[in-house]
Amino acid sequence: MAYVAFADRDHELEHRDPTTFITKYIWSQDHKVIGVQYGITAIIVGLVALVLSGIMRLQLGFPDTFAFITPTNYYQFITMHGMIMVVFLLTALFLGGFGNYLIPLMVGARDMVFPFMNMLSYWLYLVSVIVLLTSFFVPGGPTGAGWTLYPPQAILPGTPGTDWGILLMLGSLAIFIVAFTMGGLNYVTTILQARTRGMTLMRLPLSIWGIFMATILGLLAFPALFVSAVMMTLDKTLGTSFFMPAIISMGEQLDYSGGSPILFQHLFWFFGHPEVYIVALPAFGLVSDILSTNARKAIFGYRMMVWAILAIGGLSFIVWAHHMYVSGMNPYFGFFFATTTLLIAVPTAIKVYNWILTLWQGNIRLNVPMLFAIGFIFTFLHGGLTGIFLGNVVVDLPLSDTYFVVAHFHMVMGVSPILVVFGSIYHWYPKITGRMLNETLGKWHFWCTFLGTYAIYLPMHYLGFLGVPRRYFAMGNTEFMPESAFVLNQSITISALFVGVVQLIFLYNLISSMRNGKKAGSNPWQATTLEWQTPDTPPKHGNWGHDLPEVHRWAYDYSVPGYPDDFIPQNVPENQMLTEHDDVTNDSDSGAIS
Amino acid sequence: MIFTLVFLAVIMATVITWLLRQSLHTQPWDANDPIENRPNRGVIMAEPVKVALLSFIAVVTSLFALFLSAYLMRMQMVDWSPLAEPKLLWLNTGLLVLASIAFQLTRGAVTKGQLLIMKTGLITGGVCTTLFLFGQLVAWQQLNAGGYFISDNPANAFFYVLTALHGIHLLGGMWVWGKITVRVLTSSVDTQSARLSIELCSVYWHYLLLVWIGLFALLLST
To answer: Is residue A497 in a domain?
Structure first.
């Protein structure tokens, strides 16, 4: 039987158009609606986490001032802030939000290959968010074990939320992982099997490459979190001793014996480190497309960019124990993990160089998405370089429990991906809604956020060198800290609150532009990728009208010499271009030079 | 974690090698490369749902590999006392092998269009699997009656968790089996329309049989 590629079997892809409000916007199987649902949910739960961080900063900047922040609350907020931001905001927004919206559009498909499973994925994600937030309202409140949930303290009395909070947290994570697996299988299969004619793997935009590799990492790494969640739940509820050692708690010998907390750490970080790249790789991809579009130049070193993504993905599985240097390990292991950690800097640096070289001699349009993308290069470089410090065992040991680490991972994994999220929303909002976001408000948003976050995290490095410990509710006896450290802490808090409030500009812009924004047209940025070539904006159900697009070139034909426009969309065939522009002869490989 | 690492190394090596092969000799910026030269290059010649099943199998393998890593690490602690596996497990293993064979026969019958063998095979497969699951519950019962409680020893705990996890995955398969069986028995479907589902079922069952044999071997040897 001759095999017919999925994309060629057009009739199978004729989805029944939804007619009622409910099938269109609530129980929708359209990837675009699901992507937006994912995005809105993630942003809402992210706002909760943002408020939590503001409260934490109030305590740190002005201790003994706010009576409503107790040590218990503080630890609960720190835990929820971390977990929400990493898993429920960033992972969900990049893969569930942008992944869902962009994959079918960018590869030229009508929808995901399993729309029903895609819908289930979103609703399970919503359930996991609700379960997580429920823990604020149960007796004892949410867990305060820290986002790493290390046993034994995570499930022993003395830690906040050991009655219900920790169980809800573990349950919520398990549900999230099931939801992610459903979505992830969809993303992988769609990218592999539902690409339109002519869309070879090497013609995919880098956004798709980033999302693709991140999904593979997620599919293989999330089971580690699932395993540890299941085993810790059993330790808590049925009294098994997977992780729990023989222990005396509050003067009482508990029934646990022989378990290994280190085992949990291995499992947790076996998920935890790839998780960094699950968030970073889609950001790398999206930012590459924004940079290339607004520099009006082909991305520098496309193949190298793809290989770097592959290399980072592969390496990210063998670096996890660098999170455990302080737990103690065989020095040879420490050496091994330090080496692999530093090795991962090579493909990452290749990407940074390529972004900068893409800008070089580009015809740069400094619009809002571009500002965020360039801002990302700064913050990511900054956070990446401090990562090289911390990857070395001898440097990590003294710094590990200080604010230096807080500064490092917020720079590399907090601020950088969030800047890409903002940039991407400004970039793709016109496609999603048909209207542009307000440019002036966007610039205010960018500069306040960018400079504000630097005002937060740059001083934290200094605090770390001074030895200011992280995780503490109050500093206690702190003679070793100079007065300036406390002043800095206040300044950090004020900046943090400022940045938090500034996000209201963004929210206002999002909502008001839906009605009042300038009409965008189908391709406001004059971009080449397929999602900008849809017949309707916003794209209708089925995306492409009657015929699927055919792809004739890669995604980066910007400023090709000899052509009147400075961009050639992916679906423009060669002969059509030649008839339109007769003066061009045999200029076929000019795209390589630009 | 060596176990998981080896497994992951294999998976990542496969994925990355395949992707590199797609990318090494292409020059995507070269516009002089008409569409006819590359019809669907890089598409795996299989139904999407097969690709999805294979990906899912990779995920499940990752899950079990991690559990086994945890098992092997936890085993080295002093309080580990090996579990006496109930003899019943041998019978259960036999049942699962039978189920797998039945699905393989069904798959063969579909290709040849033998409707009766197909129906019989489907039902046999389902019944054997149900018996297997039931047998696993009985084995739990026996262990419990013998005083091997889940919280007493990590070996016990791992036994319960691993068998439960394996059982849940079989239950998921049984859901698909139920749908296809109802369809085959109630309506007069031809064999071809059921082909894909049956093929997927047989692959999944073989896989879960392999997982079970691996688990069982590990349990017996430790």
So the answer is: yes
